[in-house]
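Figure S4 source data
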Amino acid sequence: MGHGVWAISHWELALRVVLSVVAGGFVGLEREWSNRAAGFRTHILVCVGSTAIMLLSIYGFSQFSDELNVRMDPARLAAQVISGIGFLGAGAIMRNGFTISGLTTAASLWVVAAIGLCVGAGFYFVSLLTTFVVLFCLFLLNRWEKRFFSVKRKIKMEMKIGCRAGTVKEVVRVIEENGIVIVDMAVNKEEQSFGPEPREPCVKIHLTVKVANENMLVQFVDELALHPDVMTFQQSSSNSG
């Protein structure tokens, strides 16, 4: 398969492909356990594909290494992988209302591609070290982030309450008593309907709040459900990561 630096044995090729399967699989397992769209198989395929392209870029054209007019550039195909993997990352990012998810999965796919390139180039230490760092970030830092930075989770709320003096103040009191921080609030008064059966006029409140944990939010929603002045209530989360 070529001469000198451009030659590699079949055993070495197989070792690099298998190592890329293991490295990509470890990262993909975490994403699979987190129930993400790009999971175990996707990460393995990205890592193996990057390894194969790196091997092709270095050793696939070894028959031309002795040609005087041919200049070997092992990084040429590898450079295209880094930019080309973006289509998978973009597909993993989803937006639903105020919620954006998939950023971590997109980043993990990009890093797995880099790991595959390192394995294909025989850069074993960096590939293994990067795999360890990625797993550390996905497993441990994810738990720490939820514990220490969960207060940054924002909730968009919309509720309709009865148009009675002091009702808005009462709802705000319930929110603050549950330890929820109000970031922004807008109040709109809806006009009374003059149909055959006129409705009671109501006030529509748009809120942006910060909650520290799910238990706090559940307790607050329970209180709203039992509040006599609250007619309807909707919410959608907006995470910071």
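Figure S5 source data
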Amino acid sequence: MSNGSNEEWLDANRALRMDANESIFPESRRQLHLDRYEFAAKYCTGKIVLDAACGTGYGSAILAKSAKHVTGIDIDEMTIEYARSKYGSDNTTFNVGCVELTEIQSDSIDVVVSFETVEHTLCPNSHMIEISRVLSPSGVAVLSVPNRWGLSDHHFWDFDVRMLQRILKGRFGRVDYYYNNSSNDNNRKKGIGPLNLEEADDAECLVAVCSDVNADHTGAHGYQSVLHEIYDGVFERHQEFLRLQSELKSDAHGFTRSIKKMIKRVIAR
């Protein structure tokens, strides 16, 4: 992409894709994302790093300042094209791929960074399985999730600290939790700091630093194409569900007609 087409693409996709270095996004939102990548960079000095769901690549570029090498993966081809065009470097590469099933060698990654990712997946445990598979025995995973934001057009899971603890349990011998807040509003402390689990519901986002990995080698790489097929249609189906749900609230008869139409379309496939 050229600079002009980069800007046009980013503006057209700003609901799901962001570049925290671009001023078209609110300052508080940009800083929230930059803070967590700067936090993760402390674990990456001289390391082989995977940025799982790297998005537009701005965070991978932050990690690459201290890392030996950073690989960023994202399921969206145009997003990877943007990342390569703007943030590719000698020690930073970007590839199209599913975070749940990568082509990365087992035990080969020193640090996995995966921010605001798992709530977008169809199966959170599958993402954790892959993280634990690719991490080296002494590796570290730095993860983040939005905290109690509710479901949305793009979030299939509504995380809180209890759900995050549940998917990490048994995979890591040690997990340290942090808050990640964009402001001091609502009794929150701006920035990133150690999380008091008794006050976890007040955090805007949650960050987990995970170590002492319990390696998992159950990945079946033959399912890569299956995962891509699932993702190709999942957002369309989700949007269709939301439209039908809205119709139910406003017109029960119209909802019934829409259900019949949807069933015909599914059968036709």
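The chain has two domains: 3-219, 224-268. The radius of gyration is 19 Å.
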